[in-house]
Design goal:
Elements (H helix, E strand, L loop, with lengths): L1 E3 L5 H14 L10 H13 L3 E8 L2 E12 L6 E10 L7 H16 L4 E3 L8 H10 L14
Parallel strand pairs: 4-5
Antiparallel strand pairs: 1-2, 2-3, 3-4
Length: 149
């Protein structure tokens, strides 16, 4: 079941965020600030332009997706942006992830978004994530580059 996150869900989401960072070759070297994550999630839960969804198995949160809808910097077109998307490794069967994506895309549509941008910056299972996004109707949209300083 997918539902809107509440502030009572934040401690578990902070744990899942830590798991995401530890699993990611891109993120784990940069550390994890649980207090900042907690504050960010609380802000998103309170902000009507943001959404945080969670999904549970046997009552425990096993994954979620967070994002917002905002105007492009160069016009008034509304865009949905995914900030974080994670499902516990042992629960990744595709259906859970697909349902989270579908819930997020439906919310973005209700908020007036004309496009949704999701990405993969964790470097975890890029081929599988690419297939999942395409299966959900997404197409490749540009590239991301990084430079460590």
């Amino acid at each position: 079941m997918i539902e809107l996150a509440t502030k009572g869900d934040i401690p578990r989401m902070v744990q899942l965020g830590y798991q995401l960072v530890q699993e990611s070759p891109s993120y784990k070297q940069h550390g994890y600030n649980a207090v900042k994550v907690s504050h960010t999630l609380a802000h998103m839960i309170d902000n009507p332009d943001c959404v945080v969804y969670v999904t549970r198995h046997n009552g425990e949160i096993i994954g979620g997706i967070a994002g917002n809808v905002d105007a492009r910097w160069f016009n008034d077109e509304l865009i949905g942006y995914e900030y974080a998307f994670f499902v516990e490794p042992g629960k990744r069967n595709g259906v859970i992830a697909k349902n989270l994506i579908n819930k997020f895309t439906a919310w973005c549509g209700l908020k007036g978004a004309s496009i949704i941008i999701m990405g993969l910056t964790t470097e975890v299972n890029p081929e599988g994530t690419d297939r999942l996004y395409q299966h959900c109707g997404f197409e490749n949209y540009g590239h991301l580059y990084k430079m460590e300083l």
